[in-house]
Every structure is written in structure tokens, then in C-alpha cells.
Amino acid sequence: MHYHAFIEKLRQRLQQPLPGEAAQFKMAPERRITMKEFYAAKHPDPRLSAVLICFFPDRENICTWLMLRPEEQGAHSGQVSFPGGRFEDGDIDLQNTALREANEEIGIDRNKIEVIGALTSLYIPVSNNLVKPFVGFVQEKQPVQKNEVEVKAIIETDIRLIMNPSIKSNATFNGQHNAKINAPYYNINGHKVWGATAMILSELESIIGDV
Fold first, then answer.
1. In 3-state terms, what secondary structure has residue 164?
2. Distance from CA of residue 130 to its chain's centroid?
3. Fewer C-beta within 10 Å: the chain N or C terminus?
4. CA distance 160 to 166
5. Is 126 helix (H, G, I), strand (E, B) or coil?
6. Tens place of pLDDT for every residue, the chain, 211 residues?
7. CB 58 within 8 Å of CB 156
8. Residues whose CB falls within 8 Å of the CB of residue 51, separated by 6 or more in sequence, listed in order
9. C-alpha to C-alpha distance for 99 and 135, rounded to whole angstroms
10. 206: closest CA among 24, 11, 12, 15?
């Protein structure tokens, strides 16, 4: 499908009801709590956060950016994620958070990004973050540059890879305090993408499947 035709169909799909937790939980770690369980348990107020899924054309391919976090970076050290972070006082809203963080972490010019919708919010127990994933695109591939403090590597992936079921598998990961967590993952360019990012990708996969 031509890039701009894909974007327009994706824009339309994001205005319709989202697949939600049913899609997210296809790639959820074991013992993962649902949002209903989260609210019932009266957890402390979560930190509001946002991430950006930004599509770009690369020759005949439709791609997006992920990033590998450094090993020493807290609860999500060494994991693959979308660019993003916590809401700050200077942010107008969570969409602004996603755009600001994408600029700070991988250097995308926020003025060239058009946001076309959002996915289902996701609670991350280990860091007490409630994350809103936003979806946007740029007209042409942008130069990117990693933040040397926050990003170990920038990962480009074609959406056809995300849609390929052969890249999914299961493994045991080290969680907080060296807890062992069994979880499904996507193998993207040699990186095992699991946890919240895999759950976001799973809902995105479902939506792209509709497109």
C-alpha cells in the first residue's frame, strides 16, 4: 500500500473503537493486572506518561522508530520502547509530552510530526506509570540522533516485520529485584521487545491488520 494511503486509512481506523486490552493482552507478561484490577486495588495515583509511534516512509517501506534504553536506567533499563516519558509541568497535554520526548530522545523535529490518533492507555505496575500511546507520521524520513544519556540505540523497523507472526516467541526475563517473568516478545532486529511495549505493539498490530 502507498504510504499516504496507509496513513489516511490508519487515521480513519483510529477514530473508531480501539481493540483495547483484548489486543494488548495477547502479548502481556504472565500475572499482568488488568485496568479493572488496577482501579479496584486503589493503587497510588500513577504518573502520567506518553509515548509516540511515528511512521515514516523509507523507499517502498512504511517504518517506525523504537529505541533501546541503557542498562543503568531504572525499572526499564536495557528494554526496547517507543520514544516517550513522563508528563511535565510545562507540557500542555500528554500529546505534547509525547512530541517533546520524541524530540529530546531521538531528535525528531516535532514541527514535522502530525498526530492522527492514540491507542489505549496502559498501566505499567513496575514504574507506576499510566502511559498514553500517540500515533503520528512525518511526510518523509527524518534524520534522527540519539540522546546519549537516555538512549543506547535507535531501532528502525518496517511494519511488515511487526505483522509477521514468526517473530513472536516466549522467554523468561529479569524483572525488578531480579524477579523472573515469563512473557511473550517480538524479535525486532535482534532485540526482544516485551512488556508494555509489546502490549502496545500488539494493539497496533491489530489496528494495522484492519487497515
1. coil
2. 13
3. N
4. 11
5. helix
6. 799 999 999 999 999 999 999 999 999 998 777 777 766 666 668 899 999 999 999 999 999 999 999 876 554 467 899 999 999 999 999 999 999 999 999 999 999 999 999 999 999 888 889 999 999 999 999 999 999 999 999 999 999 999 999 999 999 998 766 778 899 999 999 999 999 999 999 999 999 999 8
7. yes
8. 81, 82, 83, 84, 98, 101, 131, 132, 133, 134, 200
9. 10
10. 24
User: Other CB atoms closer than 10 Å to residue 55's CB: what's the count?
Assistant: 19
Q: Which three cell numbers stand for residue 180?
A: 523472573
Bridge-based pairing of strands 180-188 and 191-193 is antiparallel
204: exposed, middle or buried (Cβ count in 10 Å: 0-12, 13-18, 19+): buried
Contacts with 97 (C-beta within 8 Å, 6 or more apart), sequence order: 48, 49, 50, 84, 85, 86, 87, 88, 91
Q: 69: Cβ–Cβ under 8 A, 6 or more apart, which residues?
A: 76, 77, 78, 79, 80, 81, 150, 151, 152
The label of the residue with cell 502520567 reads 48
End-to-end CA distance of the chain: 10
CB 153 within 8 A of CB 69: no
Phi, psi of 99 (to 5 degrees): -70, -45
The x, y and z cell numbers of residue 134, run together, are: 500517540
Whether the CB-CB separation of 62 and 159 falls below 8 Å is answered with yes
Identify the helix (H) or strand (E) that includes residue 127: none
Q: Which residue bears the cell 500517540?
A: 134
